[in-house]
Amino acid sequence: MIWLPDSYLNLLIEEDLYLIDLTSTSLELNKYSGQLLAQAKKETMVAGVEAAARMFELAGVKAQILVHSGKIAKAGETLLKLEGRADRLHAVYKAAQNLMEYSSSIAQRCHKMLTKARLGNPKVELAVTRKHFPGTKRLSLSAALAGGATVHRQGLSDSVLVFDQHREFLGGFEEFLKFIPLLKERNLEKKIAVEIS
Predict the structure, then answer these.
(1) What is the dihedral of CA 36, 42, 48, 53, to 10 degrees?
(2) Rounded to an integer, what distance in angstroms lies between the CA atom of residue 197 and that of residue 102?
(3) What is the mean pLDDT for each group of 10 consecutive residues in the chain (197 residues)?
(4) Which helix (H) or strand (E) holds 110?
(5) Which of 18, 50, 154, 188 is deepest in the core (most CB within 10 A)?
(6) Contact between residue 129 and residue 150 where contact means Cβ atoms under 8 Å apart
(7) Which DSSP category does 84 fall into?
(8) What span, in angstroms and rounded, lies between the C-alpha atoms of 156 and 4?
(9) In Å, what is the CA distance from 147 to each residue of 13, 99, 101, 111, 129?
(10) Strand pairing category for 33-39 and 62-65
(11) Rounded to 10 degrees, what is the CA torsion of 48, 54, 56, 60?
C-alpha cells in the first residue's frame, strides 16, 4: 500500500477548487442533496477508488466503495456510491474522476502486460520504476501495485544505482571501480547496483 495522506488528497482537490465553485454557489446547490454513482465505462482493472472516496469524505460526502482497487470491474459496474450536498458532490467529482481514470488506466496496462508475460513464464514479475509524471508518484505507484506490478525503485533514497552518467564524472568504468569499497562502507544496509549499457 502506498500512503496517500489527507494533505496530499486536499492538494488534488484544491487544484480544481482553489477558492470557490462559482457555478454551484450561483445556483445555490448547497440547498440540495444528491447521489452520485461512479461507474466503469468499460471492463477495467480498478485503481484509485479508495483515494477518490476519501476525497469526497474530506468534502463532507458519504462514500461507499463497491469495487476496491486491484479488482476487475465490468462495463457499467458501479465502483463508488456517493451521497451528500449537491455543491460538495460537484466540488470534488471531476478531480476524483480524473484520479480514478488515470489510476485505473495504469493498473489496467500493468495487468495486461503481466498477464501476457505470464503466458511465457508464470513466475515473471513486472517491476515499475521512477518514470512517472512529476507530482504523481504516489498515485502512479499505487495504481501499478493495484495492477499486479511490484516497485523496483521508489526514488533516489531506496538504493545505490550507478548509471553511465555517474561513471562519466568519475573518469569511466575503471575509475569507478575504485569507489566500490566506499559505496559499500557508506551504505551498509542498502542494495548497490550498477547498470551496464
Answers:
(1) 10
(2) 32
(3) 94 94 95 97 97 98 98 98 97 96 97 96 92 90 96 86 91 90 91 82
(4) helix 86-120
(5) 50
(6) no
(7) E
(8) 20
(9) 25, 15, 13, 5, 14
(10) unpaired
(11) 180
DSSP-derived pairing of the beta strands 62-65 and 78-85: antiparallel
pLDDT for res 65: 98
pTM: 0.89
Q: Please tell me the predicted confidence (pLDDT) of residue 116.
A: 96
| Residue type present at position 64 | Q
pLDDT of residue 94: 96
Quote the pLDDT of residue 131: 85
Asked if residue 85 lies in contact with residue 136, where contact means CB atoms within 8 angstroms, the answer is no
Coil, strand or helix: which one is 44?
A: strand
Residue with cell 470491474: 73
Amino acid at residue number 180: I
Sequence-distant (6+) residues with CB within 8 A of 46 are 40, 67, 68, 69, 70, 71, 72, 73, 79, 100, 104, 107, 146
Amino acid letter, residue 80: L
- From residue 158, alpha-carbon distances to 41, 54, 137, 161, 187 in Å are 37, 28, 14, 9, 11
Distance CA 34, CA 90 (A): 10
Which among 119, 38, 103 has a CA at the least distance from the CA of 70? 103
Say how far residue 17 (Cα) sits from the centre of its chain.
Answer: 21
